Amino acid sequence: MPDRRIEEYGLIGNMLSAALVGRDGAIDWLCLPRFDSPACFAALLGTPENGRWKLSPAAAFTSTRRYLRDSAVLETRFETATGCVTLTDFMPINEGDAHIDLIRIVTGVEGAVEMEMDFALRFENGQAIPWVRRKDYGLSAVAGPNAVELHTALPLEGRKMRTAARFRVAKGETVPMTLSYHPSTRQPHFVSDRHEALEHTLTWWREWIKRGSIDTMAPRWRDPVVRSLITLKMLIYAPTAGIVAAPTTSLPEAIGGARNWDYRYCWLRDSALTLYALLNAGYRQEAEAWRQWLLRAVAGAPEQLQIMYGLSGERWLPEFELPWLDGFAASKPVRIGNGAAAQMQLDVYGELIETLHAARDAALQPQDEAWRLQRVLLDHLETIWQNKDRGIWEVRGPDRAFTHSRMMAWAAFDRAVLSVERHGMKGPVDRWRQLRAAIHEDVCTHGFDAEKNSFVQYYGGKALDASLLLMPQIGFLPADDPRVAGTIAAVERELMRDGFVRRYSTESAEDGVGGKEGAFLACSFWLADAYVLAGRHKDARALFDRLLDVRNDLGLLSEEYDSEEKRLLGNFPQAFSHIGVINTAHNLSLRQGPAHQRAGRIAPDKAARVGDGPADPGAT
Asked: Fewer CB within 10 Å, N or C, the chain?
């Protein structure tokens, strides 16, 4: 499948799983029954023979698409020489049960259009051809533990282990169809009226958006923030509240390269920024559920704290390759699982403790167990904070004394001290203050390079790292400190390309992987946030608008961006990038947005409720 681009896809989902839909009407990626299950449509990483479900006009067409207002319902409009139809794709929200349906409705708008359907199920990540039987409602397909029913009135024809149909849709006519999943040991569930399901789904999403506090947002950024919030919500696994980094695996960070990773898991490094995004947007229920997921996932021995977990907090995420898939745009290998789960990364202690502290500041549901867990983690961190680790970016090269890791160890003890001072929590506060001071001095002494006038990626090195842009945001040093200003200038000078920020230089870093990658979009948002803290509002606005411009036509962002080829890269859509949209928009819209809240230790979401006008008059 040559010449494809990641931005050609849209996302639909039901907070159990998600599907990627191309602008040509092809569903090329779907994992059932969970985000991290093997795919049954895997053409995204291979060919149509690895599974897809395509609905499109039989003749030449042009297509445009949109999400229906404030929803996760995707509408694609096909125009041909004989007429126009729309294709409406969505996954109904079935609260209280685990039913998974994917509904597609073709509607005639003008004239009449001949349509074609190509349906090929391939379970086990594009490998296993199921046993398919005709039913009075369509088809039933079974392969091992998995079963899928295709409910359609179309006349179906079998063609070389695929199912095809050709049908005509005239103005005013609708042709609905439903793909429903169930374990093969159970009977299929009832499939409801597709039009009623559409109305229910639209209502559900629009009511959810109304629950938020989007009115605090500058009007010019409402739509990007709403789309990012809906995307983030779709990436929450409802049964546990775990948030996947992305619904895909192995979308490349450079076309043809080997930087292809499985992102269908939950990362601790995202936890604090996720909490701030949810709270400032008014979604306290989701923030509380995220906090509870964290507490369950990390429960256990402190020395076994991981950087990522499965959707339910699973720890065993073995990494292996799928040789039968050629990869997106011939970018091999295709990986399942993530070996980085076994890495040692000191920063996650700080991320977790800051998240729990911010939740306490925001007056989420009190939980004594959370403080007991923090105490145990702090006791362990006290003994290991000087160890070398793999750093925030999960390098597969040598262990280093990463500056960001030490900085987050400082944040852990800083938030512990604040918990005692502000909330009366019990703990050895004098010792924590001493540790906080010792780590601060250590980072300033060994992590700063006077010749570069910048903090560096690791002690003794010369390379830069965009994670250092978070230094003023977590309150380690103020934004007007000359060392912070020097670091921002160095990032602009060495890591910025065509107006976007790389997380580090892959050419000079010994990260154990090699090869190029694109600009890391989350880091570009961090630079915009650093500009806000430094009072450089015009620069922040310009960078933020530049980032919004690289979203696809549906408002979605992947992990990275290739500024030379002008294309999205990496797994898609990426929660971290959309969290960046939400937080930076709030930083530009409020006098005390998430960056100021973290830096000044202000309770998340209170600034959004109280507010006294925008931080930047140009934001309105």
From this structure: C
Checking if the pLDDT of 384 tops 50, the result is: yes
Half-sphere exposure of 593 (CA within 13 A, CB side): 30
pLDDT score at 94: 83
Integer Cα distance of 293 and 313 in angstroms: 8
Q: Whose structure tokens read 């506090």?
A: 213
Count of C-beta atoms within a 10 Å radius of residue 475: 17
Tokens standing for residue 309: 């977990």
The token duo for 504 is 């580090």
Answer whether residue 166 shows pLDDT above 90: yes
The residue type of 137 is: Y
Residues 6+ apart with CB under 8 A from 372: none
At 407, which helix (H) or strand (E)?
Answer: helix 403-423
The residue among 548, 582, 558, 533 whose CA lies nearest residue 274 is 582
Coil, helix or strand for 439?
A: helix
pLDDT digits (tens, 9 = 90+) for 62-105: 999 999 999 999 999 999 999 999 999 999 998 766 789 999 99
Q: Please, which contacts does 187-194 make with residues 24 or more away whose CB atoms are closer than 8 Å?
A: 188/140, 188/147, 188/149, 189/99, 191/101, 191/137, 191/149, 191/151, 192/92, 194/103, 194/105
CA 602 distance to own-chain centroid: 26
Tell me the helix, strand and coil percentages in the chain, rounded to 5.
40, 25, 40
Q: What is the pLDDT of residues 396-405, one digit of tens each?
A: 888 999 999 9
pLDDT at residue 611 in the model: 38
- Please give the distance of CA 478 from its chain centroid, rounded to a whole number: 29
The phi and psi torsions of 311 (rounded to 5 degrees) equal: -60, -30
Q: What is the pLDDT of residue 397?
A: 83
Task: For residue 271, give the 3-state DSSP assignment.
Answer: helix
E strand map for 404-518: 448-449, 454-455, 496-497, 500-501
Which residue in 594, 589, 561 sits closest to 577, CA to CA?
561
Kindly tell me the burial class for residue 259, based on how many C-beta atoms sit within 10 Å of its own C-beta (0-12, 13-18, 19 or more): buried
* pTM beyond 0.85, yes or no: yes
- Across 350-378, b (16+ Cβ under 10 Å) vs e yields bbbbbbbbbbbbbebeebeebbebbbebb
The domains located in the chain, with CATH, are 6-206 (2.70.98.10), 212-619 (1.50.10.10)
The answer, yes or no, to whether residue 613 has pLDDT greater than 60, is: no
Buried b (16+ CB within 10 A) or exposed e, 308-335: bbbbbbbeebeeeebebbbbbbebbebb
Q: Is the pLDDT of residue 544 over 50?
A: yes
Tokens of residue 479, six digits: 């934004």
Q: Is the dihedral of CA 254, 259, 262, 266 positive or negative?
A: negative
8 Å CB contact between 332 and 260:
yes
Q: Report whether pLDDT(381) > 90.
A: yes
